[in-house]
Amino acid sequence: MTRRIRILDTTLRxxxxxxxxxxxxxxxxxxxxxxxxxxxxxxxAGFPVxxxxxxxxxxxxAKNVKGPVICxxxxxxxxxxxxxxxxxxxxxxxxxxxxxxxxxxxxxxQLKKTPNQVLExxxxxxxxxxxxxxxxxxxxxxxxxxxxxxxxxxxxxAIKAGASVINIPDTVGYALPVEFAELLKNIKxxxxxxxxxxxxxxxxxLGLAVANSIAALGAGxxxxxxxxxxxxxxxxNCSLEEVVMVINTRKASLQLATGINTKEIxxxxxxxxxxxxxxxxxxxxxxGENAFAHESGIHQDxxxxxxxxxEIMKPQDIGLMEGELYLGKHSGRHALKTKLEEMGFYxxxxxxxxxxxxxxxxxxxxxxxxIKDLEAIALDExxxxxxxxxxxxxxxxxxxxxxxxxxxxxxxxxxxxxxTATGDGQVDAxxxxxxxxxxxxxxxxxxxxxAITHGLDAMGDVTIKLQIEGHEVVGRGVSPDxxxxxxxxxxNAINRAxxxxxxxxxxxxxxxxx
Length: 514
Hints:
18 helices
């Protein structure tokens, strides 16, 4: 008999904790809506007490996204739980997820609490959360390095206090699959689970997150916590697309199934990559650019004769289609709006107008406008942070023996900021001009450029990582002109620094010193 596995997606919580990622409310909502189309069972929308921005994002998702359970994270602390409830109270299916460390290492050095004190905190947190919602998840942080006997005890206490889900995280990615499976079997044997669901949350420090999650499912676990593209702390989390497609591809052997609409996987991967600025490595399983590519002559021959000779999944299974032509230069605003909405992008009037202007410019330069081009334009508008710096004008020049020079104009709240600068190249000159106009000094950490589609007329996709006041921020920009794409990425990065409050913290620190 096939067993149904629940999928909890933590892209918007644990995934966003990756260095340099700082999604705004609008971007988080876009991802949450795509996760709903993907039909995940639970969206862990954020950690509301961590910042006002995270609170507003979780609240917006709870109000607007229908279908999945909307979950908010909280430490085993009543204040955290109050914030979590305030953020998800409008959801039709709310869940509070509370956690505390259970390993001796964490209890002694981080919490500075005794095991009995931690047990009481866990029991109190679950009982307090149950006053707000029936659906309460409890996690034992660093479970795989915890004393098993203590783990059984605290899990049982949490269930008695009202927990409906018990989560066993491999917080530091330490476990081996055989060890992890044995631990979970022992928990099921020593803990009276009742109606509570047993869940796992695996990190990828040793590259074993998916393997550990699959091993856990073999041990009888019913929920897997994962993230799109495997995003997350350090080396990341269990990759949603990988664990889902393992279950889907090996369904007969595993006797497992999920409710995931796999045809939405590729779109989810692209959306998360474009909005976070974290590119997907070409050889990434399932969603990487090379996942369905065949270079070897022997492989190509086999695939041409029958794709199943070397492909265990169909590209169409994850929603991967060839670049279909959508619109031409004679298409109007309504046609663009309709096509974008068919793709799942809903822009406001300002965003649509900007997107239409950019589409027309692109259509004049390219003979064929592909789905990826439209997607890139839409995502670039979603990334645009209103009321912050906007790139209004940019011109650069260079040549053999000439010093590269750039002139730019930024606008913010109706006011213009002009600057010119020279540099080692046109990109360097443009970025220096933006730094001068915005008066935000930054150190370049990394710069990458790739093509959205194939051909010399392809749109350029630039990702820039900056260090501003000791904090890393990632910006991304697209344009048929690489220099303009670089400028857009740089502006996007400094806007994220402003949004994150990095510069405000500096201002307050300077004020305190005076």
